[in-house]
Amino acid sequence: MELWQAMVLGGFYWFSFLGFFPHSINLLFYQPLTASLLVGLVMGDVPTAMIVGATIQPMFLGQTQAGWVITNDNSAAGIITASVVIASGMDIESAMAVAVAVGLVMSQLTNVRMTVGSFWNALTDKFIKNRQYNKLWLSTIIYPSLFKIVLYWIPMSLVLYFGASNIGFFVDGLPEWLQNGLGALASLMPIVGLCIVASSIGKKGYMPFFIGGFVFAAYSGLSGIGIAVAAVMLAWFDFRCQNKGEHLSINLKSTVSESAILGKEI
């Protein structure tokens, strides 16, 4: 990997933690699929990067956190894994194992940021107490952003520049039983993520959509784009029905009741 590529990708990693945008935008940049896309654009291999991103994205669907204690670093998993696959030609199964390890290790940087963040809070309180409101932008924007350069940008750039090509050889040198174990663990994580997402839907009435969509995707033979378009149209139709008080299940029930009443009248 070239130095400028490592610097650009390290800058994206830093950018994903800035938090200057709405929460939904921040989450978008934090996802492995988005991070992998940028890796592909920078390294000139978008198809491979998107395959890596789509493979490891389900692994992080069920990620939860308590009190802002981050257990996995999604952005680092996408950037480093996609870079390693493109630079060293690692297979996807081994890449999934790398994503698990990278996500766990790099998450400790965020825990460090949370600890140091208490200092910026104290400095903000000091400025407010002294009525130095013109300095609040220093403790809330400038100082935290500069610290994140040291915490995120520089380490990520160094890891990519010196290790993107070597991690693949390191993983290939692991014992076969350990590689198989990591591969099995990585294969289970997408299933766990999907199950957690399914259980968090909250409405039992939506489970038929989930199961039907899975069966449709497995046996229809359509591409991902076709399935996505069909899902969007179905979601739009159901949304319109609910807004009009005409939910599909309610319609069916009312239709049966009206038919019974008409039958009695006849």
Automatic annotation (TrEMBL):
Q: Does the keyword Membrane apply?
A: yes
Q: Membrane-crossing residues?
A: 12-30, 37-56, 76-105, 136-162, 182-202, 209-237
Q: Which InterPro entries match?
A: PTS_IIC_man
A GO-annotated cellular component: plasma membrane
Superkingdom of source: Bacteria
- Give the way it sits in the membrane: Multi-pass membrane protein
Q: Which GO terms describe its biological process?
A: phosphoenolpyruvate-dependent sugar phosphotransferase system
Which named protein is this?
PTS system N-acetylgalactosamine-specific EIIC component 1
- Provide the organism lineage as a comma list: Bacteria, Bacillati, Bacillota, Clostridia, Lachnospirales
